[in-house]
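User: Please run a holo structure prediction.
Assistant: Happy to. Please share the sequence and the ligand.
User: Here you go; the ligand is adenosine-5'-diphosphate.
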Amino acid sequence: MDKAIDSNSIPLPPAKQSPEDQSSRECELAKLSEIRARLEEANGVLEIRINAKTRALRELAANLEKEMKERTEELRRKVAESENSRVALMNMLEDMEDLRRRAEEEREKTMAIIANFSDGLMFFDARDRLALVNPRIENYFSINKAESKNMIGGRISDIIRFAPMSPLGEIFAGSLEHISRREFSLNEKTVFEASVLEVAGRVGKIGTLLIIHDISREKMVEKMKTEFVSIAAHQLRTPISAIKWTLRMILDGDLGPINDEQREFLDKTYKSNERMINLINDLLNVTRIEEGRQVYNPVVADIEEVIRGLVSNYEDMARQKNLHLTFEKAVPVIPTVKIDLEKIKLVVSNLVENALKYTPAGGKIFVTLGEEDGNAMVEVADTGIGIPAEQQDRIFTKYFRSANAIKAETEGTGLGLFIAKNIVEAHGGEIRFVSDPGRATKFSFILPPAESD
Ligand code: ADP
């Protein structure tokens, strides 16, 4: 544009020219003016193009700037996001480390408790393989650390094969079954009690725990108590028997006549003395059972005759209490049994006396002799007060008397059934009962048939 050609600025040739000169000059002028017009036109077009290009370039620059801004913004956002993620990751790592540390502390605490536990502990995993042994076990079974480590991973069947651990074989036939307070001993002085518990986690069984508790001290105290009761009962027996015979002589008139009032008092004293003798006999029986001193003299006996005779001894007592007492033989042939007569009589007496004691007047007592799976069976059923359901599992426990029985009959030691169970089991038999509280009770026991020689 600066170079645009101005037609007025073109210099004119000098005057006085010929007509030819004149026309050629005009012609040139026309050409010049045409050139100028063209130039002007080209100039305009150029200007328009330049303007258009400039606009386009500006737009492009603006777009580029916008895009740059957007990208920069996105980049900044991404950087911020990744920074956040990094921080979150760091926090997570810190939390995990914290959790790991706490889990480790808990584990250490648990291990310290197990290690210092007063009982021996052996933990078997869910596949019944030994996973943990505490030092108390090493101490009880006199094994060293290396030996105890060697047992890890083994099953109970492998462990009981290891000589120092073999006393556990008394309890486990080969598998790790659930047991509760089963006793075993390592030598004369030590008695242990083993229990096996299933350990359950939130997702089910995680393993099994074998707990071994030293009960040697309790056993020793128990033994001393039994010995004391045994000595006391023996010492009491002689003077009490002397009282009995003296009273008997007076009552029989051997020492001269007595009046009715004296007889009444002496009768009561005689009965009280009899109860004392029974108590002493029960105590002596219990101590013999506990010390394993009970001696049995089994003979082949006619059990029907024994029981029939015994029941008839109680007929008077039943009548006095207005109770109906019957004996029945349920099958024609009773299996022959080999029994200690006195002891089996004691069992039947205990059961019949209980039925008489715990059946209110007007009730019935049925004694039945029968057979079950080749065994002789004796049943004593009554329509009495029954045994409360919640106390039935303690019925054969020493000194146990149920609340309703204490109320119905103040006299009683709670030893009769304990003795009866021991005697029956010593004969290879079994004693059991069913009771409908408030209505009826049936005790029964079976005795295996005598082996034919
Ligand atoms: P005792 O009769 O001296 O209390 P036992 O050992 O013979 O002791 O019986 C223990 C307990 O069993 C009794 O105290 C009583 O609670 C319950 N019992 C035994 N026999 C019967 C029965 N026939 N009916 C109801 N309860 C009975």
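Residues 350, 354-355, 358, 382, 384-387, 395, 400-402, 405, 412-418, 441 surround adenosine-5'-diphosphate (CB under 6 Å).
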